[in-house]
Every structure is written in structure tokens, then in C-alpha cells.
Automatic annotation (TrEMBL):
InterPro entries: ComA-like_MBL, Competence_DNA_uptake, Metallo-B-lactamas, RibonucZ/Hydroxyglut_hydro. Keywords: Membrane, Transmembrane, Transmembrane helix. The chain crosses the membrane at residues 7-25. The keyword Membrane applies. CDD domains: ComA-like_MBL-fold. This is Metallo-beta-lactamase domain-containing protein. Residues 44-239 form the Metallo-beta-lactamase domain. It holds the Pfam family Lactamase_B.
Amino acid sequence: MRRSVKITGIAILALISLVALIWFTELHEDKRGLLKVSFLNIGQGDSIYIEAPSGRQVLIDGGPNSVVLRELSKVMPWYDRTLDVVVPTHPDADHIGGLIDILARYKISYIVHSDVEGDTATAKTLVEEMAREGAKQIIARRGQIIELGGGAYLEVLAPDRSVKHVDTNTGCVIARLVYGKTSFMLSCDAPKEIENYLVQLDGSDLHSDVLKAGHHGSKNSSSLLFLGFVNPTYGVFSRGCNNKYGHPAPETAALFARFEISTSDTCKDGTITFVSDGNTVKKI
């Protein structure tokens, strides 16, 4: 009997040691100097997870439903239930549906959103949940800089004014993530008119290594002018397989090919992750 108890005790001790080792590895994994950006495979919609060199975490959009919880758990530490910044770019269900579940599960410090108004039940529920969660809310405006630490920051490019009563896509939050010499253009569902407006305002300052194709590759986004000024090395189509909209549109895919942009697709590739050391960006 004593022998059995002794063996059990050793097994328990080994298990405790293993758990402690996992915790130590998670806590002390060397991520210094690296920015990680993951375009999550959440179906037809957008959800982008950012982990800055400082360890600060950002979630831009949450896809259409609770699938985001599963996908987020694959790129975040399993024990972590906090997010520093959440950005609902606009109140369309394929961008905010999953954020309702995120707000229920995670503690959020800041929520940055445009003041464009949605008229759906999902949009109303999100507004109620944001108020209940208690995070500090900031209305996005062009020129705002969201410091992420370690030299990384998010720059809000649009909207540049109140957009309460405009089309939700027109009023979405466009942001450029910058780290050292590298950058990511996160263009929500902005239509070509807004893209071209940014070209008039910013011109050469739009260049980015990675472009999240506007509106999941819709023919109404990714204008020739905008694509030329952003001039990315990589493009990402965030979309669901066999979606009823035909995203990405054949003409949009052809335009990316014309610019020799290496494209990835969450339908075909699953979650797509890039890492930057401040000098170069690589897909992992």
C-alpha cells in the first residue's frame, strides 16, 4: 500500500512540475523586439489580433460570432483573459458579432470606435455591452496615435470627422500599424472613395508592408490608386469560403496579381500570422 501511495505522490509531483514548467515557458518566452499580427480565421468577416513588442494586445473586430473565442485562444496565452485595446471598426455584424462574446469573457482597458451608428439588434447589443463592460471608450479620429509600447503604435487615418449618419462602411476605422521601418494597413471595409481620399491627404505616407484588403476583397474597395500608394509586399483576404458575395472579386484578385502582391486567404490558409522585428516582415 505504501508503495502505491509513493508512486502516486511521485506522479502528482511530476504533474505539478510539468504545469510549473509550462507556466514558466509561457511567462518567460522571449518576445522582445517582435510585433505579431494575426488575421484570424473567423469565416466571412474580419478579426485581427496584434501583440506588440511590449506585450500589449489589441483586437480589431471580432468576426460574426463566437468563433473568435476559439481562434483567439490559439494565438494568445491560454491563461490570459485581458485585452488592452479593442477596436470595433464599424457596426456591421460580420465585424462585431464576436465582440459581444469577447466583452463577456475578457477584461478590456480601452475601446476605440467610430461614431457611425448601426441600426441592427447586434449593433444595439454591442453598445449596451460596451457600456456594461466599463472600459474607457474613445471616439476614433484621424491623427490619433495609440501607443502600444516597444516602439509600436496604431495611427488612425479615418474617419476625420463625425460620421454618425453616413454608411457604416464609409465611416469605418482605418488604421495603420507601425513598428520601426515596417507597417500594416488595416483598411476595414472602406470603399474606394475613402481610399482615394486618403491618397489625397497622405500620398506617400500610406506605404505598408502588409495590406488587409478592404471589404474582404470586394470590387468596391482596393482602388488602383490606393493599392499603388500602399504598395504592399503582402495582401490578406479575410473572408469565408463560398461566401454569397463572391469575395474576393475576380477583378480585385487580378489587381493584386498585377501589382505582384503575394496574397493569403483566411478561407484557404486559416489564420495568417506575420512577425516584424522592426526592419522586416515575414509570414510564419
